[in-house]
Amino acid sequence: MGTDRYAYQSRLRRVSPLPKLLLTAVALVVCLCCDSVAVGLATLAVMGVLVTALGGLPPRVFLRFLKVPLVFLVVGCLTIMVGSHPPDTPVLAAIPVGGRLWGVTAEGLLLGARIFCKALGAVGCMYFLALNTPVTDLNMALERLHVPRLMVELMELIYRFIFVLWETAANIRVAQQSRLGYVGLRRSLSSLGTLASMVFLRAWRKADRIYTALESRGYTGSLSTLTDAYRPGWGLLPLTALVTAGQLGIWLLERMAVA
């Protein structure tokens, strides 16, 4: 389910997660620090190419996952671009309401575009990591980086129980649909309320049974996972430097063009 299914199919699956994590982190930090439209779009394009060329995944997979945050980014950036201004403010487009102008200024448009492109570039970096690195491998990499073990185990448990909630909600919804629980607005709202109230109760019971099963198998407060055999992935290190140099080069060119 989710990105894990594609991560296990990726050609980078057997590559050590540390070089992939380094590439993602460096590209992400540079993209956020540059605060540039061109750098954000270039980062998104480069990560999409890497997912396709190195990971071997179809471009439609990357584009399909990109639709999810795209809706939130569009709505969020529109609220930044559109605002209330005094009547004498130079605006690109506006509607007079109550003695003030509700519209878009050049500064607001540029700010919204920067945030939108920067966020898209950051999302592209995270998708490169998620579509090429299973969560289990990522947790092992975090342990090797001496991230507190409690935090790593909480991340793993929270991620796994997302699918417990998903499965529980799906089963309840199928049962409701088989009884015509979503015919009509009133019945749909009632069924949705019942689903919301029951899903967490059943998931909590299932989690309690899983914890009991762990204790019966000698659980002492930490999850022990066997380390997989990885390829070193040294080729990603010069690629990291190349991507960073490209980002900084685009940023400098943009600054020179503006100046």
Mean pLDDT: 86
Ends apart, CA distance between termini = 48 Å
The major sheet is characterized as: 3 strands, antiparallel
Provide a count of the helices. Answer: 9
Number of strands: 3
Class inferred from helices and paired strands: mainly alpha
The helical percent reads over 70%
What is the alpha-carbon Rg in Å? 24 Å
Overall spatial form: flat
List key phrases describing it.
5% strand, 2 domains, three-stranded antiparallel beta sheet, mainly alpha
Description:
It contains nine helices and three strands, in the order ααααβββααααα. With 259 residues, the protein is mainly alpha-helical. The protein folds into two domains: 1-147 and 229-259, no CATH class; 148-225, no CATH class. Strand 2 (93-97) and strand 3 (100-104) form a beta hairpin. Helix 3 runs parallel beside helix 5, helix 3 runs antiparallel to helix 9 and helix 6 (135-144) packs antiparallel against helix 7 (149-178). The protein is flat, with a radius of gyration of 24 Å. The model has no long low-confidence stretch (mean pLDDT 86).
Compact overview of the structure:
By secondary structure, this protein is mainly alpha-helical. It has 9 helices and 3 strands; from the N terminus they run ααααβββααααα. The chain folds into 2 domains: 1-147 and 229-259, no CATH class; 148-225, no CATH class.
What are the SSEs and their pairings?
Blueprint: H1 2-9, H2 17-34, H3 37-53, H4 59-81, E1 82-85, E2 93-97, E3 100-104, H5 106-130, H6 135-144, H7 149-178, H8 185-216, H9 236-258
Antiparallel strand pairs: 1-3, 2-3
